[in-house]
Amino acid sequence: MSCPSTPPIGRGHYIGRFAPSPTGPLHAGSLVAALASWLDARAHGGRWLLRIEDVDTPRCVPGADRLIVQQLARCGLMPDAPPLWQSSRAAAYQTALEQLIDSGLAYPCACSRQDIAQAQAAAGITRQRGRELPYPGTCRPERGGLHGRAARAWRLHTERFEKKWLVAPAHQARAAINDEASGAIHWHDRRLGAQRQQLSREVGDFVLKRADGLWAYQLAVVVDDAAQGITDVVRGEDLADNTPRQIALQAALGLPTPRYLHTPLVLGADGEKLSKQNGARALDLSEPARALRAAARHLELDSNPDESSVEALLAHWVVAWQARLTA
């Protein structure tokens, strides 16, 4: 896994994080993401934080959060501060939503998934594999709003966002939106290179607060990254598609945009991403060094057979990661 050179961050001014959802114990794919984020923080001389993303409470498994903390500790991956639980952050998310409402960028929506599917089918739009159907904007204020129906969720008005930020004064996130003809968001991934997405066309008005009253991942992660001072996000490649939505929210809320690095995914025998949803087995940590070696190989790091202890292996890989950063 090669990482293109990027503008340096001063030692000690780097803050990274690992943010698992406690839907079960860590698996092989989780350890790859955790190890990459830990190594990147240590290679920059920075701090590494742990955030438990437990806002989707129906999917959370009781006790999985504590088990994840224990698994990381077994692998020598110790956070530099106590973990942060998203379930304690509802007030911060509400404040952010109210800010978006006041700025005219968030609106209530009454549509169910079936409503969205029917509207898109009528327009000849079919769902692409691995992606949700773009929201057609049925409940936008300029289209009559809720049409007498009860609000179910809150959404970001992507077209208003694009128009506002194309004519807005200079902003720290303004440089990310540099295609004035389309309003597309451009960003650079440290591994994947130049990326581009137009939210209003490719994603639509995405959810900020769900119909069941739970906070959406996109809003929660942006608010928490800013609150924790995150400068660099290192996570699996499956989350790269979420990045433009998060950049948009960072701009709309006046929050800084971190640098991003998306790591290669660990695939199952069926070629699909290894995940808890498709039955990925929990990490076997009877020999933590062996599990770490497997994760390191996936990141194209030498497993260094001369080292046997977890501490020695991690120290070896930090040096290797530093060399990669300066290559």
Characterise the protein shown here.
Its EC number is 6.1.1.-. With 327 residues, the chain is an alpha/beta fold. It has helices at residues 28-43, 64-74, 90-102, 113-122, 158-167, 199-202, 217-227, 243-253, 288-298, 310-326, and strands at 15-18, 47-52, 84-85, 106-109, 153-156, 185-189, 193-197, 207-209, 232-236, 259-263. Helix content is 35%, strand content 13%. The strands form four sheets. Strands 1-2-3 form a three-stranded parallel sheet, covered by helices on one side. Helix 1 links the parallel strand 1 and strand 2 (47-52). The protein is elongated and about 70 Å long. Mean pLDDT is 87; it is low at 4-10 and 169-175.
Topology as a string of helices (H) and strands (E) = EHEHEHEHEHEEHEHEHEHH
Determine Rg (CA atoms, Å): 21 Å
What's the total count of β strands? Answer: 10
- What is the terminal-to-terminal distance? 13 Å
* Strand line-up in the sheet with most strands: 1-2-3
Tell me, what's the shape? Answer: elongated
Main beta-sheet strand count, sense and barrel state? 3 strands, parallel
Overall structural class, as computed from helix and strand content, comes to alpha/beta
Relative helix content: 25-40%
Q: Please, how many helices?
A: 10
Q: Mean of the pLDDT scores?
A: 87
Strand content: 5-15%
Query: Poorly predicted ranges (pLDDT <50, ≥5 residues)?
Result: 4-10, 169-175
